[in-house]
Amino acid sequence: MAGYFSLLLLFFLLLSLNFYFAFWEWRWPKDDGPLPVDVEYVRVENYFGISFRAKMKEWLQTARPIPHPDTRAGESPVRAILEKPNGERILLLSGGRFGGREERDELVYSDGDLYLSDRAIFHREIYCLGNLQTGGHAQLQAVAADGEILLGAANEVARWVDAQKKILLSRGTVVHSRVCSAEAIELEPEASAQLLYAPVVFTTGYRPMPDSAHDGEQEKGLLAVQAPPATPEKVPAYLDPARCSRLGANTWLVRGDLELPAGSRVESSLVVKGYLRTGPGCRFTEPVKAARVKLGPRNRVCRSMASGGSIEIGESGFVGEILSADANILLCAGVRVGASSALAVVSAGGEVRMERNVAVCGKVTAGRAVLAV
Amino acid sequence: MILLAAKATALVVVFVLSVYSLRHFFFAFHRLFRPQRMNYTDLAGFHMPSVTVLIPMHNEEAVAHDVLEALLEADYPHDPGLLEIIPIDDHSTDGTGEILDEYDARYSWIKPLHRREGRRGKAAALRAATRLATGEILIVFDADYIPGKSLLKFLVAPFADPEVGAVMGRVVPENTGSSLLSRLLDLERAGGYQINQQARNNLGLIPQYGGTVGGVRREALETVGGWNALSLTEDTDLTLQLAIRGWKVAYVNRAECYEEVPVTWAVRRRQIERWAIGHTECLRRYLWPLLRSPYLSRKAKLDGVLLLGVYLTAPLVLLGWAACVLLFFSGQSFLPALAAFFLASTCYNAVGNFASFFEIGNSVILDGAHARVRLLPLNIANFLFSTLTVSLALAKYYGGRILGLRPPWHKTERYRNGNGNNHAGGNGNGGSSGNGYPNGRGLNFIRARSIIPGSPAS
To answer: Is B448 exposed, middle or buried (0-12, 13-18, 19+ CB in 10 A)?
Structure first.
């Protein structure tokens, strides 16, 4: 009996220990406010660049100058060194060539064009008021420039790159986070990033008017959102009545795979539970979704395309609005997504691979990497 | 015979609760360690179909200004062809109608609907407003919600996927510091959205459209015959109908919006009574169609059944306790009494009760709000209260069904701006005066708090 009561006492002691902390938090709360939700939040794709520029301006006003041997030598582009109240240093450059084999731990501010030497290593952010160019194998933290940014071969950027003008990621360059430009981003083969955002993101070989199939007028026509047709009474010819059903007034659902012959024209929203394959020259005027997609050459998707798996857009294909896949996306040579008048997005949970002469007007983002091949 | 029935009952209860417990653990581990489906978030701002925002209001003069002002600041294009707001004055007897008319006069794209006839209630109001709406997508907010500037973009983004029929955002309690209950509900909501809804979205199951901070594709709504005005929980009703007909419901964790949660246990009681009865009606209506649906996978059907049956666990828990007590005191336990006592209490904590607490604990950690996790053991009070309330509500419901009575619809009370008793407590000049209870904070308070020094917004 004594053992029983001892165990019972022990049990209640342990149990009450739980409630002791809970009671304490209830009566004398340390955290009883609502979870923070920023109701003012507005998504800005180049937020890092904007925020860093603003902070750099603030630091330049609050930091104090300190003497440094480089500034007395007269040969170095470093014209002054500032120290922030927290001890971090900012190198003020007047442009020119900078960075040797040594590693730099200072923030860099340049008011002229800047060239960073081969194999330069910068552990802090760089802000350049002019153009910025790097040699091969440079390692950077993050870069903002008010002019162009040309990153040399096999550079590695730990965080983001942001420019007011064009950005070039040369062969083998890797950016581990965002690349944003107010003008254009070019990727050479084997260049990669996690997210790219610009009025036009393109790979080597891109020609703004590559052929008559992509002229401005035609793109405008493709982008025009048409009024959904009156509810069709019959199953469209390209669908097998035994395997399809109507999901909504203008949406068809296909159980299993669907293979569309060359030149098919799909005028209602389509959801395919299996693999969607198409021949050359097909056209989709309404949104499409399939478990897996492989479009043939010169297909046109006027609105959006989604997949729970992977998507492959065949050569010279076109997507008007959104391309979204849970797995990978492959954009074959000559593919165009979006238009300058209506920015689009390509989003993959895995990888986005872009072949030669591919252009996306808007955003390209991937869970793993966006890679030029 | 009684003892045999008690044993059978205990076994059934243990089995059912074990299934629900495993579900909670599975969702929590999946949310923590498996890849997350967040890709709709990347589409925000790039897919902008025409949208109609519907806001049902019954005597909402204390909060009407805040929700409308917040929507006026939304960064969705204020083009009448793309954005339309229909606040619904549903048989209000306070100043709600006049407030809506003020906005109507100032903004061409705010088009109030005044209802003075017909059935009262949220579903009926939504049904009437949907006839007037012109948007391709219908977004619904309750009147006490305060949508952020980008919320509409986040909510409509998933509709780029033509299979998505409805979208649900995340609800975050705003008045957490008002009472112990509101703090416990804050924990419960965190577990429900941060873990449960997100895991269901990841796994391709049936995330629930919650009736507010969410949207529905008009085409999908029409295929199910519109809002079910006879349902007490038109949101669960719609979720099930869409899933059964092949439409997907998407959950966007990033689409967060503040709400008010009940501050008093009496208000909470009425709220969960309505949910329990509405849910159970849906179980009766949709269980068989759900199991027969050709569009749903087996795992989605299992999730649907567990979703529909969730309120039945409350009376089951009570039955299980009664059976255990009976077996214990009649000496029917297979193990020595002492061992049985400790085994039962350990199992209860580790498998039964603990599973949902585990889910909540993880959600709080994901939200980065570590201190409040200490309050978790007190959630036992919420659990006991809910178990008893739901059991009584279901008893009342089934009793009413036998007598042919329909359950009434109760509106959840508002607290903001001194409106604790849901009387017209507004300050007359609209917006957030902060003259309500200490945490009855409106748009201005939230807006001021959300500006972080150094951010572009500041």
So the answer is: exposed
